[in-house]
Design brief:
The protein is an alpha+beta fold. It has 18 helices and 15 strands. The longest helix has 29 residues, at 137-165. InterPro entries: Phage_capsid, Phage_capsid-like_C.
């Protein structure tokens, strides 16, 4: 059968004996054709063209094609003649002949968008039709597609109710109008669904036509070249969706931390959480937080951690090894000119071995059963509590950890960093000289210029209050214009230097050369008996963490900073 014959047959199928039933304009139907997306099934039935699918019989005993997507296997209306009086419905599957540009043209049709929004509004649903223009990254596209499908399901349900509630003999022009409007809305929404699906298949990132290659997080490899994890830079840690995209983690959907903690406490939880918990406990007897929830925790770490805010990276480990070795820069090799056939000058070793040993970091907390089960914002509260608890101690140990087990070795005690002092007994700053001295020490070692300085809030306020002889705020030297000041309460202000016991420290450097290593994600263990008498539930959260300075000379420690 030729294409012309197929088209003619489609037109015959669309006509019905009842000419009083209104039909949508032909151009609207054409613009409302479901968009192009290659069928995922390779069966003969799925590989038919749109015209071939439309040519199916529509007699009293024929199953309406609408049932494929509206009824999902249910029988057609009780009165078989209803199919003769109701409009022809296009199949959900896309026309493989339509291009992505055609899909975008359909989505850009303002009339179709307004009509679809009106139908969605009639159902009392809140849906942003414009949000699709701002979707970036695989994770956001998956979330957008899930939202679209939920709206389509609601429209489909409303259409089923209209079909089932109206006998064929009472099918009116208004019923036909409502039916067509819902159909066109569903078709319009399916256009965006198929466009997103095509973009995911093609690894495109934006729905407005621009394309860029998908980039996963850089791989972390040990000294033997074995992959041990992925590294997330500050830019990659910016949002939950960015983290999920970089780690190739699917969208969490409706799964949240509150649901997970309820599941651990043997309360009612979602099917996805029950499936995750059914995999059993980890080596510590706890349940590992599902992978889909980790981006939420990691994104919440950044604003709570001064080191991550200053530019430190976070390596998510995928190795079972208790320790592994990385290569770090120890010193820059010295190049020298040589004569023909002359010897090559010797140079100090340029690299050093960094042994990473993630150590256990844990805390416990309690929550009432009623609050855990009934609070609508328990997810946000848990996310904030877990992130801040881990971030504060990761900051303290990352900066000042002694390295004596079980504590990790922090930046202060890593060999090779530069130091700047404030005299025998310390001194109260009256200028930005400490930062200029730190800059000088770092750059003199051929290390990258410092980008940030981490200090106690007391000292940050001190520098903010510096004034010149006229009482005006003291301007930073141009050399420090791009240096970011970051505060943390994890640096003490009662350190003893000489005869002074009120001193503090400032950490200056390029913190992109500093890395946190997080192994096994986060696991949660329930304390069954500890708080049973008060009707509360106790939880212990575990993580395994270590840090490393890939280039110690890129940092300087300023000591003896008085109030």
């Amino acid at each position: 059968m030729g294409m012309d014959d197929q088209a003619a047959r489609v037109r015959r199928v669309r006509r019905t004996p009842d000419t009083t039933v209104p039909r949508p304009p032909q151009d609207l139907l054409q613009r409302s054709l479901p968009p192009a997306r290659p069928p995922r099934s390779h069966s003969d039935a799925d590989n038919r063209t749109l015209g071939q699918r439309a040519a199916r019989p529509t007699g009293p005993h024929a199953r309406p094609m609408a049932a494929t997507w509206l009824r999902r296997g249910r029988d057609q209306p009780t009165n078989p003649k209803a199919a003769e009086r109701r409009p022809f419905l296009f199949h959900k599957e896309s026309n493989p002949m339509k291009s992505m540009q055609d899909l975008r043209i359909t989505l850009a049709d303002r009339r179709l968008r307004i009509d679809a929004a009106a139908e969605v509004g009639k159902l009392g649903l809140k849906f942003d039709f414009e949000a699709g223009n701002n979707v970036n990254g695989r994770s956001e596209m998956l979330a957008r597609r899930a939202d679209l499908r939920r709206v389509v399901n609601a429209l489909s349900q409303a259409t089923r109710e209209l079909l089932d509630s109206t006998p064929a003999t009472k099918w009116s022009a208004d019923d036909q109008k409502s039916y067509d409007a819902k159909l066109n809305a569903v078709t319009y929404l399916h256009t965006e669904i198929d466009l997103i699906s095509n973009m995911i298949d093609l690894e495109e990132w934006t729905p407005n036509g621009s394309s860029r290659a998908k980039h996963n997080a850089p791989e972390l490899r040990d000294s033997n070249g074995q992959r041990v994890g992925s590294v997330l830079t500050t830019e990659m840690l910016a949002t939950e969706h960015e983290i999920a995209a970089r780690l190739n983690i699917s969208n969490a959907g409706d799964t949240n931390l509150g649901d997970f903690f309820r599941g651990v406490a043997k309360m009612k939880s979602s099917e996805g959480i029950r499936a995750a918990l059914s995999e059993g406990t980890d080596s510590a007897g706890g349940y590992t937080v599902p992978e889909v929830l980790m981006p939420r925790i990691l994104s919440a770490l950044v604003p709570a951690s001064s080191l991550l805010t200053a530019g430190a990276s976070l390596a998510v480990l995928g190795t079972d090894a208790k320790t592994f070795t990385l290569a770090g820069v120890d010193s820059i090799p010295t190049a020298a000119w040589r004569s023909e056939a002359g010897a090559v000058a010797e140079s100090d070793p340029a690299f050093r071995a960094i042994v990473v040993t993630p150590r256990s970091l844990a805390f416990r907390f309690k929550v009432s059963r009623e609050l855990l089960q009934d609070s609508p914002n328990i997810d946000e509260a848990l996310q904030q509590a877990i992130a801040q608890a881990f971030a504060k101690e990761m900051d303290r140990a990352g900066l000042r950890g002694t390295g004596t087990a079980p504590e990790i070795r922090g930046l202060k005690n890593i060999s090779g960093i530069n130091t700047v002092t404030n005299g025998t007994n310390g001194a109260s700053p009256t200028s930005y000289a400490n930062f200029v001295s730190a800059w000088q020490e770092i750059v003199s070692d051929n290390a990258p210029a410092p980008r940030a300085a981490i200090m106690h809030p007391r000292d940050m306020a001190k520098f903010a209050n510096l004034a010149d002889s006229t009482g005006q705020p003291l301007r930073r030297p141009e050399l420090l214009d791009t240096m970011r000041f970051v505060q943390t309460s994890q640096i003490p202000t009662n350190l003893t230097v000489g005869s002074s016991s009120d001193t503090s420290e400032i950490y200056v450097g390029d913190f992109s050369q500093f890395v946190f290593f997080l192994r096994e994600g986060v696991s949660v263990q329930m304390l069954n008996e500890l708080y049973a008498a008060t009707g509360e539930i106790g939880f212990v959260c575990h993580a395994r963490v270590d840090v490393a300075a890939l280039y110690p000379q890129a940092f300087a420690l300023v000591t003896g900073v008085r109030a």
